[in-house]
Amino acid sequence: MKKLLVLALVLILPFMAFAAGSSETADSADDTIRIALIIENTIDDKGWCQSMHDGITQAIAEMPDKNIEYSYAEKMLPVDAGSIARQYVAQGYDLIIAHGAQYKNLVLEMAEEYPDVSFAFGTSSEIGPENVFTYMPESEETGYINGLIAGTDTKVGIVGLVGPVDSGDAARYNRGYVLGVQAVNPDAKILVAHTGSFSDYVKSSEVATSQLSSGADILTGSSQQAIGALRATAESPTAMWVGQDLAQLTTEEGKAKCIAASAYNYAAVVKELVEKIEAGNLGGECIPMNFANGGFVFDYNPDLKADWVSPELEAKINEAIASFQADPDGTLANWADVDYSTL
Q1: Is the pTM of this model over 0.85?
Q2: Interatomic CA distance for residues 171 and 70, integer angstroms
Q3: 22, 8 in Cβ contact below 8 A?
Q4: Model confidence over 140-187: pLDDT tens digits?
Q5: Residue 69, SS3?
């Protein structure tokens, strides 16, 4: 059968119909796997949403033997996403990924209504219905690596952390960061604050500015809101950044300020989802992400590495990643015990 690989990149605003390219391919080959992505921000946000979009496109490229059709809907608040999701169902999509825990209620409602369609959302460690997958990045690992860098490179013994909300993978990343800092610099002061939003760039910039004013010289943050904090860091003549998305290494601010970055490799998740759906498994599982299963990647800023990553620090980072790969379940089992009030 002639193979079909359609990458339909569709920008859909609330309550608008699908672009023609998406609907025209709905009746294509029977072996086509149709994947839809629903996100609250954009595919180029240098953070949470872009990482999933990039993961899907990477997974498609790494599975050339499969016929995959892909569409996405941007800027979808949960209240609007139901209409779009139902259009995807009507178009015959096999897998609908609602990328964010804020879509949980919508996904569970849709899953009950359409038991033959597979849905996925994250981050969550919950086990959902038989046609719902969840995925959970064990991001205490990536936080720990960045904490090693921050704790080692701080010149003043004060580092900052700008979180979105204290839950899910963000909570894991933040506490892993604290553990990493403390592993190399137990006397360091760690400033922790949350914006209460995954996408409020202005608020994250304000929080970062406050932490910089309090003396912090190395900052980090997670989710798409972190870009605001990175931009605030870029305005400081001395402060630096450690990132939670590789895309931050290539931004104008990141090129000068981001020492290194970790990222979620959602391609590993998407490939596993495709394989399970092809085998007739529509859900009822949580897929973990960690260094051991290829769910995380890490890299340095080539322009900053020589000045900010000593051979000793690099050795500690390599040792930590190796330990995560050897024992993904136990290396940072105490991450949840981190108490911000004691910092």
Answers
A1: no
A2: 31
A3: yes
A4: 999 999 999 999 999 999 999 999 999 989 999 999 999 999 999 999
A5: strand
